[in-house]
Amino acid sequence: MDGMSIATAGLNIEQYQLNPVVLAYHDSTRPVGTMSNIHTVGTVLHGTVNFAPAGVSEDADRMCALVKAGIVKGVSNGFSVLDARPDRNGVMRVLKSVLHEVSLVTIPALNSAMVTERARASFRKVLETVSTRRGSTATVEQRRAHAEALRRDLARRGLLSVGDAGRREMAAAKRRDLQRRGFLT
Fold it and tell me: 3-state DSSP call for residue 147?
């Protein structure tokens, strides 16, 4: 954002918090999740992106994978300017504005607007989620199979922290698969 500076103290986030949508590339037809824990630290706006559950949206699945892989790192916002004034150097100082949306982008207007942390799911949390569903009539075997399918999907997408034992197990399974397919002897 060469030539523009947005004062976070004058950024109104109340309207955004009513519908804290996160978009892919500022495209309102491509929502990928919501934003929570919105706050400022000094002059920087922070928040947590909560991606739509896996399988709900191809855009969300794709964007989540791209962010987790570190390919898409940029964050950008859509806002309306309520009050702005140029300073002595010709930089437009946005003193008051209203936040409308937050987007994940490949190239942010502000070079420092980046994803700063990527979370990993815990298999234990996935298992708890599967096994504690209210009103579930699934058998223990069905719950285990569902939990294992979720674990494999999360691990495949790089969203699962499996620990050393889990990594060894996945490496052994990969070796067995490669041997079965004739790539290893």
Answer: helix
